[in-house]
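Morning!

This is the sequence you dropped in the shared folder:
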Amino acid sequence: MKILTTSVLLLAAVAAVTGPALIKSDSEAPGQNKVTITVKGDKRIIESNGIPDHKVAKYPAKGNPNTISEQKYRFEVPANPKPATGKAGRGGSAWGVALNGVVFDPGTAEVYNDGDRSSPWHYEALMSNTVMGTTPKIKVGLGLDESHAHVQPNGAYHYHGIPTLLFSRLSGGEKKMTQVGWAADGYPVYAVYGYTKADDDKSPIKPLKSSYQLKKEDRPGGADAPSGKPDGSFSLDFEYVAESGDLDEFGGRTGVTPEFPKGTYYYVMTEEYPFIPRKFKGTPDASFSKQKMDPHSNLGGQSGTSGKKKKGGAGGPPSGGMGGPPSGGPPPE
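The structure's back. Tokens below.
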């Protein structure tokens, strides 16, 4: 009963941010979950088939015409990660992997006005169950289920936000610090809760808050950008406001955790934007490159197709890696 209650509370919390209900996860995953996590030398190695260990929506589904299928993932991350010496961007990387071997990939390939994929104006996946923004090019959303996940054209099931059913199982239905995965730079990933005092595991547990907020200025407007007040439909509707929440610009903080009682830097998946962090404190391992994972996966979009291409360019992810790699035609409506 505790696990069910936690799931309901989490879904209600996210629904308050995102609007309409997600697709009910009432179907068994099409296969057995297989994942191994081992440490060899200075590397942590995660191998999996990408099949979740919880119920999913019945795919194909409205807004997502794809079917879940097994993948062949082999990720490596530093066992003792360190902060990046330069500016670390996502580029064409998936952001991380859950403890069940399912990929975290918060960005989308869908952009304002069905434009070039190099545009920075990418839609937010957790806002996409409603008509998207001021130009409703995607009429049916992206088909996210109750774990804020859906399926790529190559069959890869992946999370765009808190993996609700996995989190509920791992937490045992309790409000406590719960590790749910590893980021591509090797730092651990927790969901929602942390200690009130980062360095005191005896301090009360609370939901940790992001330091990203909606921008106050209107969007620029024009042919390549939306207009109007930022409402969260696009990643660029948000900006980092230092010390406005519990977490830094990378979506994490340094402190003690149950797995790291001496302290570590760790990321936190939140109930508000960015849901899954979008930046790296360290350097992401090359094994999380979307081309290395599967050159046809188009992780970051749902259709396996790309928008318009401008003269002189092949398209691709914007600086900072908010979307997936280009792949050839507009998304289905």
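Headline: The longest strand covers residues 35-40.

More detail when I'm at my desk.
O.
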